[in-house]
Amino acid sequence: MKSIRESDWKVLRRLHPVALERYCERTLGECVQVATDGGESAHARYLALYRLVKARDKTLAMAFDDLRRSTAITTLIALVGLDLLTAAELDALSDETREIVLGALEPLRE
Q1: Rounded CA gap, 7 and 103, in Å?
Q2: Residue range 49-67, pLDDT digits in tens
Q3: Nearest 5 degrees, angle CA 96-CA 22-CA 102?
Q4: Are 10 and 78 in contact (CB under 8 A)?
Q5: How does the average pLDDT of the chain come out, rounded?
Q6: What DSSP letter does each residue of 21-75 carry, written as one string?
Q7: CA dihedral defined by 26, 103, 61, 22, rounded to 10 degrees?
Q8: Cα torsion at 101, 60, 87, 13 (round to 10°)?
Q9: Which residues lie closer than 8 Å to 73 by C-beta, 6 or more apart?
């Protein structure tokens, strides 16, 4: 995949930690829900929590590890696919990069 413009790379480097914080906040909220489900036993909640964290950790690694300019488009596709960037944040990207990212996600949204 082709490398992105310098200006888009700077935007991604600024948004990356913001998106990571959003992802972690979302995951922690899910953890609280699982851990406090009064209808389940403590052991069942523990197992559900373990499975949730394991799954979310895989997603976190896919979306946030290996941030390089050569992987920037893939990272942006992951972040947008996980709904971690606002429309205003996407608007900070060049039209070309935004079109590539949104175009890659279009088949998933149909």
Answers
A1: 20
A2: 999 999 999 999 999 999 9
A3: 20
A4: no
A5: 94
A6: HHHHHHHHHHHHHHHT-TTS-HHHHHHHHHHHHHHHHHHHHHHHSS--GGGHHHH
A7: -20
A8: -80
A9: 1, 2, 4, 97, 100, 101, 104
